[in-house]
Amino acid sequence: MNRTNICKNIVQSIKDYITDQVKLEPHRVEKHFVRRRKLSLLQVIIYLFFSSKASMFQNLSQIREELGTLSFPDVSKQALSKARQFINPSLFKELYYLSVDLFYSQIPSRKLWQGYHLFAVDGSRIELPNSKSTFDFFGEMSTILIQTDVIPWDWLP
């Protein structure tokens, strides 16, 4: 299975998880999101996933434009800020583990060293001269473009 299909499966599993009220129940702070309010727990989670570094107003406007089927309510920034305080951080930890487990269960092959994943991390920074000999020896760095049509947003309820 290629990585694009694996990513699609991960997005689908996250969608299934956050749309299942039984699975979301342990991640809501007690006595919150129990009455029918303007903002549901699912809508706040989708806002957190969809928002960028732009202002909260811009993120809300973008969600209303691009996710029209979600019918995101017209709420104040303060209401949204307050609502997101009542989501237990364990939800995001659970979604992380869900995606990691799914990724490693579907990846076709991975190299192991004595049964372990081996990672080498170097935190030092050094700037090398921009010369042909440096590029020949170390390789040239290039930007990687992310394909945005891999994750469709039309799956939202």
Tell me about this structure.
It is a single chain. With 157 residues, the chain is mainly alpha-helical. It has helices at residues 3-18, 21-24, 41-50, 56-66, 77-84, 90-106, 132-138. The two termini are 27 Å apart.
What general form does the structure show?
Answer: extended
Our measurement of the CA-to-CA distance between the termini, rounded to an integer number of angstroms, reads 27 Å
* Alpha-beta content class: mainly alpha
Helix content: 40-55%
Radius of gyration, Cα only, in angstroms? Answer: 21 Å
H/E series: HHHHHHH
Mean pLDDT: 77
β-strand percent reads under 5%
Main sheet specs: none
- Total number of strands: 0
Low-pLDDT ranges: none
Give a short summary of the structure.
With 157 residues, the protein is mainly α. Helices cover 46% and strands 0% of the residues.
Question: Keywords for this structure?
Answer:
single chain, 157 residues, mainly alpha, 7 helices, extended
Please write out the topology.
Blueprint: H1 3-18, H2 21-24, H3 41-50, H4 56-66, H5 77-84, H6 90-106, H7 132-138
Helix pairs in contact: 1-6
